Task: inverse folding
């Protein structure tokens, strides 16, 4: 998944050159950055986004509406943006923010022709609300995308068809690695291992008692060793390890919901 807020020409070139090994792609409108990000935002506007989609839509299997207003009251404005994008023969996925349906957003999109509905930012974006809305939209014949959420607990209970998250990069940025430990008791086998030096949480790389399992997993998937997580290319290697975790999580969630 890419964001209009940060996608570059080099990203586009990489997509074009590696399309045969990429199973699916998504483009976010950058609305989250517009609302909460820091730095330059002047390019994150509806018309530039529409121009970009008209030029590059073939690169993306799914692209999202320009949902500029991140509040329940934003339904009318966001829906107007969706209509403008659709008027150019483009088909963005709606993004929901009115979780309690105060302004009729949920009711409207249950009846719409859009096959996929995305659940976006909300002040009440809790797991119970996400699970409830996912079930409601699925009962209305929709597939559901969870924006920015990818925990085992949520995905296993909601049954959402897809999701995205920047956690793989953010975890690595702050010295963390996530690992699916097969020998762990219980359905959720996720473990968070801190590999940095600034703090001392319960589980660190230095005291991790299952490092041999981690090492075997990394070697089988990417020819990495556990020690590489604290070595010369530690940041890149942590990112790779985290991507491997989310790929494994995807496999486990898919198995769970296709039994």
Result:
């Amino acid at each position: 998944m890419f964001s209009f807020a940060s996608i570059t020409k080099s990203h586009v070139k990489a997509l074009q050159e590696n399309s045969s090994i990429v199973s699916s792609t998504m483009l976010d409108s950058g609305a989250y950055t517009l609302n909460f990000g820091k730095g330059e935002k002047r390019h994150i506007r509806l018309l530039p986004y529409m121009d970009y989609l008209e030029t590059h839509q073939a690169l993306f299997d799914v692209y999202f509406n320009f949902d500029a207003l991140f509040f329940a009251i934003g339904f009318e404005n966001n829906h107007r943006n969706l209509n403008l994008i659709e008027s150019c023969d483009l088909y963005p996925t709606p993004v929901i923010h009115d979780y309690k349906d105060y302004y009729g957003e949920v009711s409207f999109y249950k009846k719409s022709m859009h096959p996929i509905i995305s659940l976006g930012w909300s002040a009440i974006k809790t797991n119970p609300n996400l699970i409830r809305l996912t079930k409601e939209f699925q009962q209305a014949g929709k597939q559901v995308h969870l924006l920015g959420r990818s925990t085992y607990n949520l995905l296993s209970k909601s049954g959402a068809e897809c999701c995205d998250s920047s956690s793989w990069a953010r975890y690595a940025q702050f010295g963390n690695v996530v690992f699916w430990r097969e020998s762990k008791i219980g359905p959720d086998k996720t473990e968070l291992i801190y590999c940095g030096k600034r703090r001392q949480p319960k589980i660190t790389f230095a005291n991790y008692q299952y490092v041999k399992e981690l090492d075997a997993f990394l070697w089988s998937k990417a020819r990495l060793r556990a020690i590489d997580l604290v070595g010369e290319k530690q940041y890149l290697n942590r990112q790779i390890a985290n991507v491997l975790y989310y790929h494994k999580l995807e496999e486990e969630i898919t198995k769970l919901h296709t039994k």
Notes: The first strand starts at residue 2 and ends at 3. Residues 168-257 form one domain. The mean pLDDT is 94.
